[in-house]
Specification:
Helix content is 22%, strand content 34%. The chain is globular, with a radius of gyration of 16 Å. Helix 1 crosses helix 2.
């Protein structure tokens, strides 16, 4: 597929910022007074996590996991956890942050791996939720936007590592 200059806008910058502000308020209210660890799924959710943490004015620590399940525009059906959290999660409340909840395989696999660390709780927060493709019985505890079954890029999401720098969520033409 040839790269296109400007993908079609699905969710603009202003709507993203407004929704992240609301999510930050909800998370702050629900985790106030708790030992919170945010675990970011690399690489796609870097912009989302960066903006979200600025909206959460309570103490927390941040760690990362690196997982992959896509080649080009297609899910491989297999989740590879390439790196695990380094910080202590035992008895901490973990908020797992990802860019998109699609089939649910990635969040299911990472959640299962995090359970081994004996956290007090694990909840999920995603920028985008695509329930029409769900194959695993998982949902997001916090979700930014429900989107249709389209391949999306921008605001951290990529196509072969391109488009992550777009300030909005866009769609690519089908091939």
């Amino acid at each position: 597929m040839e790269l296109i200059q400007h993908p079609k806008v699905l969710v603009n910058e202003q709507k993203i910022a407004e929704r992240i502000s609301v999510l930050g308020k909800e998370i702050t209210k629900n985790y106030k007074g708790k030992k919170l660890t945010l675990v970011c799924v690399l690489k796609g959710c870097i912009p989302f996590t960066a903006d979200l943490i600025r909206e959460i004015p309570i103490p927390f620590i941040v760690d990362v996991v690196h997982a992959s399940s896509y080649v080009n525009k297609h899910s491989t059906g297999t989740v590879q956890i390439l790196s695990k959290p380094k910080l202590e999660l035992k008895d901490r409340h973990v908020l797992l942050i990802d860019d998109i909840l699609d089939t649910g395989r990635t969040l299911t696999a990472i959640s299962a791996a995090l359970q081994e660390h004996e956290p007090a709780s694990i909840k999920t927060c995603v920028l985008l939720d695509k329930p029409s493709r769900r194959t695993e019985p998982i949902y997001a505890d916090y979700a930014g936007f429900e989107i249709p079954n389209e391949f999306v890029v921008g605001y951290g999401l990529d196509y072969n590592e391109y488009y992550r720098n777009l300030p909005y969520i866009g769609t690519l033409d089908s091939d």
